[in-house]
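The instructor's notes for this session suggest beginning with a concrete chain rather than abstract definitions. Hand out the sequence below and ask the class to guess, before any prediction is shown, which regions might be ordered.
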Amino acid sequence: MPASAPKPDLGLYVHWPFCRKKCPYCDFNSHVSTTDDSDAFGTALCLEMSHMANMLPDCRALKSIFFGGGTPSLMPPSVIGKIITHAENTFGFAPMIEITAEANPTSVEANIMTEFYHAGVNRVSMGVQSLDDDILKFLGREHSVAEALSALETVRHSFENLSIDLIYATAGQTIKAWQNTLSQALVFDVPHLSLYQLTIEPGTVFYTRQRHGETLNLDDDRAANLYDLTQHMTAAAGLPAYEISNHAKPGAKCQHNMNYWRAADWVGIGPGAHGRFTINADNSANLQRVGTATRRSPAGWLQAVKTQGHGIDSHTHDAADAFAAEMIMMGLRLTDGVHIQQIENICGPRDGWLDHGAVKQAIEDGWLDGDQTADNGMVTALRATEAGRLRLNHIIAMILR
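After discussion, reveal the predicted structure:
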């Protein structure tokens, strides 16, 4: 990357690992607890943040903060405020910083979000997951549809920047049923929707049940029908997809998640948090992508931070070709796709990480669109087509060396 090129955006991810109940589909690092020492964890998060900041090759203002979990809306607002203040003192804030907290749509958590707003949070992602009581029960959620709708009304009084998460393609779900749920969500006229097909992840309760013979989600063909419906309904409502599962009004893309998909830089703190950032970015010959992962056990992480200032469990260094693969894998999730020349500027010639024949074949098959130069026909940009987004893992395995 030329020395004059701008540095990548920097984000901060804060993991709060505690939940009141473990959902059967969830494979995140979450732990059921009602007795955690919130103040001790808040102090430890600030300590680890300082350690991670010292690992960065340069000082940049934060563009985003994301409180994930677990259930961050169970955090005391005083702890949220302490972490945000420490982040500003440690990194500084870019203009219009986005600060997101995930929340469950229970009445208690909805009411506390007003205090989160005063603590500095300016965006909320509500884990509604369904607007069908039977599906909510199947997903192991604590709230009802009525409570979710009430919580959304409460939260929108404080937050203009509000996102709703929904899960679809559960076993037996019909096109009509999903259409009704999505229509209800669109009535709220929120600026952002995250719409995920149910996937069965190893290590979850659903995974065990599936191995015992239960059918928990739709087959690929039926799921694809619901996906197509989703694209048409959201686009018609002014929230087109900007990523495989995410839809937004103009100007309302989740900036923190865009950081992931663009393979920019972020620091991850808290039990089981991951971070990635680039060093020697102005010298591509020595480019390295640094990855950190912290201890997953909340108790083990807390003890490690108390004794050594951080809970890092693994520390990796990827070379330029692996970083190029990361940018391709993440960037093709976006409707804007990836700019091959930009990746070459950072990671070196494409011959080392891109299979030209496979790219040509994917374009001919209608799975990728590509911009090409007029002089030599070299691909300068790649985007997954609508058909390609349904088989993206296969395409990525094809085109990466």
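Then share the key points. The mean pLDDT is 91. The chain has two domains: 10-260, 331-399.
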